[in-house]
Each structure stands twice: as C-alpha cells, then as structure tokens.
Amino acid sequence: MSLTPHPQTLSPEDAAHFLRRTAFGATDAQIRALVGQDARAVAEDALKFDARTAPGNPFDPSTGATPGAMLQLTRAAWLFEMMYSPNPLRERLALTWSNHFVIGTDKVKNHPALAAYLGVLRQHAASPSFERFTLEIAQTPAMLRYLDNDRNKKGKPNENFARELMELFTLGLGTPGHPNYTEQDVREGARALTGWSFEGGGNVKTNYLRPVKASFNPRQHDDGSKTYLGQTGKLDFGDVIRIAATHPQTAVFVSRKLHRAFVADTPDEGAVQGSAETFRRTNGNLAAVLEELLSSAVFYAPQNRASIIRGPVEYIVGVVRTLGQPKLEARQLLNLTQTAGKMGQLLLQPDTVKGWDGGREWINDSTLLTRMQVAAALALGKTAPKSASCPAIWPSSAPRTARCRRL
C-alpha cells in the first residue's frame, strides 16, 4: 500500500524538519511561515520548481584558463546555487541524482558536457517520467564518455554502460541467489547500446570549452535481434532504457534511494515498498512519489528526525541557509568546495562509479573536527548574522530561556 499521510498540520518542529531535509536548512522566519500548514500542501508547493537561478553567481566556468580551473569554477558555481537558489529542493534533488546517475571529472573535463549534465539533473529533479529522465541523462555526452559508450561499437561491444545502467541506475543487483539481471543481459544490452557516442568537445587544454553533442552512427550499431531482461527484438538504445527503467525492481531500487536521501540512512523496507507501489502506479512519476513521501507519516516520524548523517556539501550549505544566507566572498566559496572535498565529497567526483556510500562513512575524527571548524567559522565570522530572537525549532514545552541558551 502507499504511504500513510502525516495526520496533522505542521508544528514548529515539523516545519524545521521539513526544511532541513528539503531546503538544506532555514531561518526562524522561514520555519514559522510553515507552522500550521497542511503537510501535503507544503510538499506540493516545495516541488513547484521554476527556471530561476541564484542571482549574482560570481563563477563562470567558461572563463577557466585550464581544465582544472574550469572544474573548480564549476564546483563553486554549483555550491553557490545550492546556497542561494530560490529553488532549494531542486538543487537538493540534483545533488541526490548526481549520486545516482554518477559521472566523474576524472574522465569528463569538458565544460559544455558538464553544464548539460547538470541541466538535465535540474530539469528532471522531480520528473513526471523516470524513464524519460534516464534516457536523457544516458544520452548526455558526459555519461556517454564516463561509461565508455563512445567505445561501444558493433562487433566490439563495451559492456560498461550496459552493466551500470542495470546495477546502479535502474534494477540494482538483487539479493544473493536472486539477481535482478544476468551476464547475458549485460552482453545483449551492450549490443543494443552500440553506435551512440558524441561529437566535438574534449578534455584537454585546446578543446575543454568546445561545444559537444551526442551522436549516433548507424554503421557502428548492432541491429541484430537481442533478448534483454526477457524481451526480444531488434532492440536499440531507447528500448534498453525503456525496459530497464520500467522494470518492476526499478521502482524499489529508486524508491530506496529517495528514502535514504530524505528519510533515513537505513530506511524501513515497508515504507520503501509503499513508495515503490506509487512509483509503479504512476508509471515512474518522481514528482508524485516525492510529494507523497515528503508529506507522509514516516517522513515526520520521531525516529526519523535524526536518522541521516548529512554529506559534507549538504552540511555546509545547511549552515549557510540556517544563518540566513549571508553573502560569502568568492574566495570563501572556492575554499568551501575544497573543504567539502577534504571531508570526502568533492562535487562531481564521487569515489567510485556507484557514488558516495554516505551514512556513517562521512564521519571520522578528522572530518568531524573539520565540520566543527566550518560551523564555527561561518557562525562566528564577520559575515555571520546577528541573532535577534530564539528560533522556533525547540520544543514548545522547553522554557524559553533554556531554548535561547541552547543556541
């Protein structure tokens, strides 16, 4: 069955929880604005993204004098967008999807390719069609390069993309003794994906700013009959994406990712199955799944209030948004992107193709100390705002003086 709705209007604690999970963090005024509202209406409103971006972004990756400089500017520009975007949930989801549809700047150092990849993550952050999302991200030059599909040709198939499409993007591995796909599915999928590559662009100093676009060469495509995940025919790129993205196990795999991102590092499997049912019923409508999830009783359950260890980027952005989005200098922002990397999360460069593991893996003696230093620097530095009143995040039963002291 689908998820049970949150049974009451939002309390101050509920509102603070919602904004921590969906907007990285919030000020007291932003928290109070949601108090007393219906949980479903709040979730629906948060998912109404528009095309606006954060004004005054000081970073233009196209001005990078080298591929390395361009990558630094790309990361800083995205961090700025997360901190100051009028669509924080869009950026929160884009960050989540970047850890699902993984690419890495160790292999992709072309500015137009990275910009297009980020554009697709934002456009489909709460997509009405996971199938369409998967197809469009799969056909970005960044993904075609990262997973070696530019080397996948008729007669010499490269299986990398076909394997990761099933293992990491759609079905998942399955359980011991009950795999969700076979090695034959990998081989047949690779044949279907042949012929897709890209034109233009590049990674070296002479072409890292050059435009790039996906391309299809029919002479390099294997148009023979294939059998893939139980379906047979002259399957091509779009067919493989459709079959994998609409497979029944994909609903569970993607729903579990969303629960890990928004509910708990170790989510309740019954609740995951509820979201999977909604995923199937709506034909992979991510917006519908997210709206139900973010207004559900399980999302607001007391045991899920402190159940996620934030990643370094989310932690840094959360501090800035909670402090009222003080305007940081460009150098500070560049330093913060590097600091996130030192804590284990360099944007657009996950540790492996499966992304960052997250959870307890984020924390050790060194990273915990760095987190405290970051919070102190931002809260006590010259850009820190003055505290005019006590935030509404403490339980109303606590004495007001005690709540103020706890700040």
Spell out the blueprint of helices and strands.
Blueprint lengths: L11 H11 L5 H7 L4 H8 L20 H18 L3 H11 L12 H13 L6 H9 L2 H6 L13 H10 L4 E2 L2 E2 L3 H11 L2 E5 L11 E5 L9 E3 L2 E3 L3 H9 L2 H15 L6 H13 L4 H8 L3 H4 L11 H11 L7 H13 L22 H16 L19 H6 L2
Antiparallel strand pairs: 1-2, 3-4, 5-6
Helix pairs in contact: 1-2, 4-16, 4-17, 7-11, 9-10, 12-13, 13-14, 16-18
What does this structure look like?
A two-stranded antiparallel ribbon has the order 1-2. It has 19 helices and six strands. The protein has helices spanning 12-22, 28-34, 39-46, 67-84, 88-98, 111-123, 130-138, 141-146, 160-169, 183-193, 237-245, 248-262, 269-281, 286-293, 297-300, 312-322, 330-342, 365-380, 400-405; strands at residues 174-175, 178-179, 196-200, 212-216, 226-228, 231-233. Helix 1 packs across helix 2, helix 4 crosses helix 17 and helix 13 packs antiparallel against helix 14. It is mainly α and 407 residues long. The model is unreliable at 387-407 (pLDDT under 50).
Quick structural overview:
The protein has 407 residues and is mainly alpha-helical. It is 49% helix and 5% strand.
